[in-house]
Amino acid sequence: MSPDIETLIQKISRLPGLGPRSARRIVIHMIKNREQIMEPMLMSLDNVLKNVKVCPLCSNIDTFSDVCSICSDLRRRRNLVCVVESVADLWALERTSCFSGLYHVLKGLLSSIDGRGPEFLMLENLQQRCKENSVEEMIIALSATVEGQTTLHYIKNFFKDQNIKITSLARGIPMGGELDYLDNGTLLAAFSARG
Amino acid sequence: MSPDIETLIQKISRLPGLGPRSARRIVIHMIKNREQIMEPMLMSLDNVLKNVKVCPLCSNIDTFSDVCSICSDLRRRRNLVCVVESVADLWALERTSCFSGLYHVLKGLLSSIDGRGPEFLMLENLQQRCKENSVEEMIIALSATVEGQTTLHYIKNFFKDQNIKITSLARGIPMGGELDYLDNGTLLAAFSARG
Questions:
Q1: What's the gap in Å between the CA of B135 and the closest CA on chain A?
Q2: A88–B34: do the CB atoms touch at under 8 Å?
Q3: Which of B15, B17, B31 lies nearest to residue A48, judging by beta carbons?
Q4: What is the nearest CA distance from A194 to chain B, expressed in angstroms?
Q5: What residue segments make up the domains of chain B, in order of their start?
Q6: Chain B contacts of A44, Cβ < 8 Å?
Q7: What residues of B are in contact with residue A42 (Cβ under 8 Å)?
């Protein structure tokens, strides 16, 4: 195998969710479809590399000059902020179109195992923005995992004296969920929060 | 989401084995690791795009000037040819280092459903090479699927009057295979070909 192809397969196989076998399949597919797939892919990758930056306000990734398209959108409410773990979660919320405020993207959740301390949350930065925009509600939209909930409590505690209403995502039965198949924790949460 | 990122996600999600969710994960991972992953990936993709070609003799993909590194390797036996379905299969055989001859890579297997006729096998091309190299043995290394076996029989029939020994891969129990878990066809083949 040519070293160029080997290098490309190696690089692709290290992407999340892929391995050597899927990387080989992808590379062969791209080489076979040079004009339709490989060249556009190269251009697209180059565009993203050249144009995409991290927003200095909310840490969203986007193409922009000063701040990202969400932070610069004047129709969005400035006094509402939503804390998410990652840009993937920001995109997931944006797909639902349920939120019209601004975001604060963490660099990761608190995790003693992975050595992520409070500096990954950039809460001073968030506090500063809350003051400037007179934020009234902060929605902490984190995963219902141990790390997510630890981080939730840490942020709640950090902002406890700041006169900001702090909310988090509701717990309950997911759409289409059948009672018999739910875990105890979910069922308990759904039962306690009945209404 | 920025249109540049959206385009890239769309293109990646169309690669074999990937979907929108894994494509989003990959793009975020690349953007987060700009210097370590995204830039080297772009360079590597560009190298392959610039340098990799399809070998005019065996249809292998490689970096070369006239013919691929296998066809131009003088240590390989010219009177032995192995027919494979795709470059992935060629790579799989090369990893075992069991074969020291040249290859003939098909453009696909015969398939009436997918509309692939004998022109995908390029057998005139192969016949020409067999004459030039006075090929003594042709190993037809195709998958044990209906399409693979149909193609095997077609090729065997095509070369039946040419005084070339035509062989195909042995059938039997795969390494580590337990009798009780094998399908009937495999067990039957292993039993008939016992030795």
A1: 24
A2: no
A3: B31
A4: 32
A5: 3-53, 73-192
A6: 4, 7-8, 11
A7: 42, 45-46, 49
Tokens of A128: 């500063």
Q: Is A166 on the interface with B (CB under 8 A)?
A: no
Distance from CA of A40 to the nearest CA of B (A): 8
Architecture of domain A3-53: Orthogonal Bundle (1.10)
Range A125-130 contact pairs with CB under 8 angstroms and sequence separation of 24 or more: A126/A81, A126/A83, A127/A158, A127/A159, A127/A162, A129/A57, A129/A81, A129/A102, A129/A104, A130/A81, A130/A159, A130/A162, A130/A164
Please give the CATH topology (third level) of the domain spanning B73-192: Dna Topoisomerase Vi A Subunit; Chain: A, domain 2 (3.40.1360)
Secondary structure of chain A as H, E, C letters: CCHHHHHHHHHHHCCCCCCHHHHHHHHHHHHHCHHHHHHHHHHHHHHHHHHEEECCCCCCEEECCCCCCCCCCCCCCCCEEEEECCHHHHHHHHHHCCCCCEEEECCCCCECCCCECHHHCCHHHHHHHHHHCCCCEEEEECCCCHHHHHHHHHHHHHCCCCCCEEEECCCCCCCCCCHHHCCHHHHHHHHHCCC
pLDDT in tens, A140-169: 999 999 999 999 999 999 999 889 999 999
pLDDT single digits (tens) B13-50: 999 999 999 999 999 999 989 899 999 999 999 999 99
Hey, is the C-beta of B44 within 8 angstroms of any chain A C-beta?
Answer: yes
Alpha-carbon distance of A88 to A90, in angstroms, equals: 5
> pTM here?
0.79
